[in-house]
Amino acid sequence: MPSEIALHSPLDMHIHFREGAMLDLVAPLTAETFAGGVIMPNLVPPVLKTVDAVAYRERILSALPKGSDFVPLMTAYLTDGTDSADLASGFEQGVLTAAKLYPAGATTNSDSGVTDIRNIDAVLKTMAEIGMPLLVHGEVTDADVDIFDREKVFIERILAPTLERLPDLKVVFEHVTTAEGVAFVRGAGGNVGATITPHHLVINRNAMFAGGMRPHMYCLPVAKRECHRLALREAATSGDPSYFLGTDSAPHPVSLKETDCGCAGVFNAPSALEVYSQVFEDENALDRLEAERAAQLTATEIDTPTAAAPAERRVAELGVGDVDAAVACGHPDLAPAAAALEPHGVRLAVAVDHDDAPFAWVAAAAKVHHGLPLHEHGGVRLLFSSRIITVCYTHLRAHETDSYLVCRLLLEKKK
After folding, report:
1. pLDDT class for 13, splitting at 50, 70, 90?
2. Whole-angstrom Cα distance, residue 64 to residue 36?
3. Residues 132, 98: contact at Cβ < 8 Å?
4. Among 154-158, 224-228, 297-301, 316-320, which stretch is predicted with the lowest mean pLDDT?
């Protein structure tokens, strides 16, 4: 990998910020990495109307660090009773960037979602007429459909027939996970695109069961067979602008992940660009990362506001040899997801930022424990290893008291 990669105004086309203390904690982490992003509306209660999106955007902006240039691109949550006129008004005002289809019960906070796609025919017709993108969680929820087949069946029963009825509808097939999804997008024409997450590029479904249940590898849609992961990597690195970056960064408290009925989601924002960079390098496609994946990732589907001022984020790698020890975490409300992705070919560690920011402890810990060098670019420091077990700083532990947490998984390995 080159010693430095400059990414201009990288956008994350799929982010979950949540609410309250969670929002205050995770929004700054995303803003450190991305210039803007498409914000998911599945709150409780959800972002149903334009006025809800305005209020949520203000809460997001209030949660960002002073002087941040991060631009939240707002979306509305579709229900069986969505008001087409309000949706169109919000889009025309520039408040709403897109609308999100959650099949009822498909994922986190989706119980208020659409129960039958035909219930929103009038809404989708309006969206097609005004050019408003539809963001799709592409899974059916029928009890008789295997969880690993839900995306494929969604394409057959819902997505393909919908596009036959409304060929002008702009659709983003979010967090695509299957070879069938990749093929559908490739053949669907210029109005259809797909986001691909970093974690679906580096794990397959075995990761959820490696040596036991691995709740931090559990997300929805679930990771699939290895053949599907390889299809995603080929699509992501192909240069085809139909596929673009969307992290599906989704934080949950540790107590709700490490339980008998754990939440689905991987919060990956602080390390997402580094994971994507590693994948592109592994596929000998690093020259394609900037233009099609991490810059103005609008593809053909989403127009970003001019308010998204150019900003430069950098990804760097230092060849510092193998590291097999714990990485300390210093934010009192953060615990790492402990995602041991090394067997899947991920070699990077973590992004490290200013001394007065939450990431400063990573720099200090790495330097103290391992004597690792730090790389600085205009105040932004990025720390990498050529072979370190990846740590996604990502799940929240509200009851932690020590100011320096340590990755539990890596400690267990040392024992």
Report:
1. very high
2. 12
3. yes
4. 316-320
Q: For position 2, what pLDDT does the model report?
A: 60
Dihedrals φ, ψ of 287, to 5°? -70, -15
| Strands, E assignment, 228-307 | 243-245
At 228, is the pLDDT very low, low, confident or very high (cuts 50, 70, 90)? Answer: very high
Check if the beta carbon of residue 299 is closer than 8 Å to that of residue 242.
yes
Catalytic choice (12, 52, 240, 248): 248
* Residue-wise DSSP of 168-188: T--EEEET--SHHHHHHHHHS
Task: Provide the pLDDT for residue 219.
Answer: 92
What are the phi and psi torsion angles at 373 (to 5°)? Answer: -75, 155
Question: Does residue 359 register a pLDDT over 50?
Answer: no
- Residue 138 to residue 35: CA distance in whole angstroms: 27
Residues 6+ apart with CB under 8 A from 405: 328, 329, 330, 331, 334, 335, 336, 397
Which residues on neighbouring strands pair with residue 253, listed in sequence order? Answer: 396
Rounded CA gap, 60 and 58, in Å?
5
DSSP string, 324-370: -S--EE--TTEEE-----GGGT----EEE--TTSTTHHHHHHHHHHH
What is the token pair recorded at 147?
A: 């969880």
pLDDT the model gives residue 304: 46
Q: How far apart are CA 73 and CA 57, in angstroms?
A: 8
Question: How would you list the strands of the sheet with 71-77, edge to edge?
Answer: 11-15, 36-39, 71-77, 96-101, 134-137, 171-174, 192-196, 243-245
HSE-CB for 341 with a 13 A CA cutoff? 26
Q: Is 282 part of the annotated catalytic residue set?
A: no
The encoded tokens of residue 171 equal 């659709």
